[in-house]
What we know:
Elements: E1 6-11, H1 18-34, H2 36-39, E2 43-48, H3 54-61, E3 67-68, H4 87-93, E4 97-100, H5 103-109, H6 113-125, E5 129-134, H7 142-163, E6 167-173, H8 187-201, E7 213-221, H9 228-232, E8 238-241, H10 248-264
Parallel strand pairs: 1-2, 1-8, 2-3, 4-5, 5-6, 6-7, 7-8
Amino acid sequence: MSRPRFLIGTSHKTYLTQQRAVAWATDVAQICRDHETVRTGQVRTFVLPTHLAVPAALAAVGDAPLAVGAQDVSAHEAGPHTGEVTAAELAEVGCALVAVGHAERRRDHGETDEVVAAKVAAALRHGLVPLICIGERDEGPAEQAVESCRAQTVAALRQAREEGLSGEVVLAYEPVWAIGAANPASAAHIRVVCRALRDLLRTPGEEGAAGVVETGRVVYGGSAGPGLLTEVAPDVDGLFLGRKAHDPRAVRDVLDEAAQIIAAEGGPGE
């Protein structure tokens, strides 16, 4: 299968109960089965339910082309770590990817660059795709955001590089000031930052990502919803959708939007 043009997904955070998460997964799985761009691999989709809802969501999705992942992962391997969920266990139950270093984890749980790097390494060690959340705290010029995001990315990959790990990695650019806001960052801002992050994924050495990242993508999150992909598509590989995507109809709208972009670029679409 050719490299997907877009990666589209969302996190339920703790907004949805397990029952609602299963209903959402059932509905969106059917949308993905029916949508040509997803069936043909032009678009890959994913959802991150709560840890408790992961097995039920996997059962609801079945063989549909909708990957299920987790919202967080332990920095530790199996052992005396009460309350943790290891990468090995997530992989064993069928998770495909895991979010790492979200701004809310840093804010609410004090996660440092070192903790994030350990979680990225744990994910890669067990064949999970780390979706590394990066973003500047305060609104400002795109050039400043680029420098902040470069530093966060290099730090997040440091332990994996030291251990000689590599694999697929997704960078989720989420300006902290845009998370939960009424509107996302401007399209111009998003495109500048995501272009720079794409370049970083191809940059060798300790100040780049090449070597650790075999396959890399950059998606935008931070109040992302329908209508945004068209504005930023030339410079992003997809969207990490916000709360709007908790309505399955919004997911369908974004997939339709992706199909239109792919068709305009000369690829197959609906």
